[in-house]
Amino acid sequence: AQTVTQSQPEMSVQEAETVTLSCTYDTSESDYYLFWYKQPPSRQMILVIRQEAYKQQNATENRFSVNFQKAAKSFSLKISDSQLGDAAMYFCAYRSAYSGAGSYQLTFGKGTKLSVIP
Amino acid sequence: ETGVTQSPTHLIKTRGQQVTLRCSSQSGHNTVSWYQQALGQGPQFIFQYYREEENGRGNFPPRFSGLQFPNYSSELNVNALELDDSALYLCASSSRPAAEAFFGQGTRLTVV
Question: What angle do CA B21, A89, B104 make, to 5 degrees?
């Protein structure tokens, strides 16, 4: 079974600064997807960024980028030019590329609470 | 195009009772997944429905059951509620099982 570990329960960042959230995972599979989701107080999970394991290039989405280290099974999220609206819970998630049982379930970490200081 | 909607938003039930939570999938989506998110934890996969059939199940007891209807909306039923069932229940829909999942805002269930 796959596991996802987020070792930072809470982080804070000054507005306009850069912050990096850490995530490690354990899997025996070679092909999979990794995700970062944001969960604001509204509770809705919002996809921030996605990385395919077969792609060596790190994914970027505007101010959000990842550092994907496949051999180390590490997947960190960097938020640049932090904004007040970035304050939320951030969850790292894993999903297999193939499903023998039919479903493509997400396995989540426990989350990191990010606070943005004005 | 409407997103994923869940009802009710909040619910309080007594231990031993039964509860039904509802999810309307996003237009054009035929796959619905349910997750349980306990306080301070990440979501845990309960099960997935694809074209009205259960398509995979997580490590949850049989008292957690579900349905998917011809319009692809879905229900999550929990029987014999326990205090530990208190959680946020999230529904996610996608255009197929392997496609990106879009989440609703969840139902907060409190069991007393």
Answer: 25
Helix intervals (H) in chain B: none
Name the one residue in this structure whose structure tokens are 């850490």: A22
* pLDDT given for residue B98 in this prediction: 85
- Taking CB atoms and an 8 Å cutoff, what residues of chain A touch B42? 4, 91, 93, 108-111
Rounded CA gap, B29 and A38, in Å? 22
- Cβ pair B48:A46 closer than 8 A: no
Q: Is the dihedral of CA B70, B88, A8, A17 positive or negative?
A: positive
- CA of A32: how far to CAs of A68, B14, B83, in Å? 12, 41, 35
| Contact flag B97-A102 (C-beta cutoff 8 Å) | yes
Query: Which pLDDT score, from 0 to 100, does residue B19 have?
Result: 98
Q: Taking CB atoms and an 8 Å cutoff, what residues of chain B touch A36?
A: none
Put simply, the chain A residues between 15 and 74 with a CB less than 8 A from any chain B CB are: 42-47, 50
A17 within 8 A of A118, measured Cβ to Cβ: no
- Write the DSSP symbol of residue A57: S
CB contact under 8 A, B56 and A44: no
Q: What is the pLDDT of residues B41-91, one digit of tens each?
A: 999 999 999 999 998 999 999 999 999 999 999 999 999 999 999 999 999
Residue B29 CA to residue B92 CA, distance in Å, equals 10
Q: Are A93 and A114 in contact (CB under 8 A)?
A: no
